[in-house]
Design brief:
alpha+beta, 1 helix, about 20% helix, 4-stranded antiparallel β-sheet
């Protein structure tokens, strides 16, 4: 599991609410990281390869 410092350009999802249920996405070396903002940087980071992230985003857009 990578640390938060392994990723750059963290950004909050435009669909996140102001007070809860916030998700952030960051870019790493060949991977995309997804983290829960509520964990204040101490929680786990889900890692997706760039191709898997693209596939995931395409599926989300279909819904």
């Amino acid at each position: 599991m990578s640390s938060r410092d392994s990723f750059t350009a963290w950004r909050k999802s435009s669909r996140s609410k102001d007070d809860s249920e916030c998700v952030e996405v960051g870019a790493g070396a060949g991977v995309i990281g997804v983290a829960d903002t509520a964990d204040l940087g101490s929680g786990p980071i889900l890692e997706f390869s760039r191709p898997n992230w693209s596939d995931f985003m395409e599926e989300i857009k279909k819904r």
